[in-house]
Amino acid sequence: MDDDDAMELYYPHVAAFVEDRLVYLYSRRLGQTYVWCPEWFRHAEALSRLDSIWRAWEHLRLDPATGMSVWWRDHADPHMMVLLSPDGPFAGCRGQHSEYTAPPLATVTPPEGLFFDQRDPELRSL
């Protein structure tokens, strides 16, 4: 796709999408079942998921047949179920932002040579 074919965005950024559209589409009674943080942008996982939801919406809004159905089924609902979950990224917030200090998932460094650099052009043809 060249610059002339680039899709024009409806929203300038994810925050505009969240504030103007998403919060109205997902109005929920918050409490034990659903948790939301008004400072969602301070949570890395939430920001990444919401940005993904917005970008998918921008693309699928142009499909007049099934675009919005696909957006709900494949993008919005799966991500929002995680985000609104009582154990999701907003678990410590409960109506106001809190510096939820869940540690990152533990990892062990894989043995040397188990993985190779996927960016190496010589390995792409394998």
TrEMBL record:
Superkingdom, taxonomy of origin: Bacteria
Pfam families: DUF4913 (PF16259)
Name used for this protein in its record: DUF4913 domain-containing protein
Gene source species: Kribbella flavida (strain DSM 17836 / JCM 10339 / NBRC 14399)
Organism ancestry: Bacteria, Bacillati, Actinomycetota, Actinomycetes, Propionibacteriales
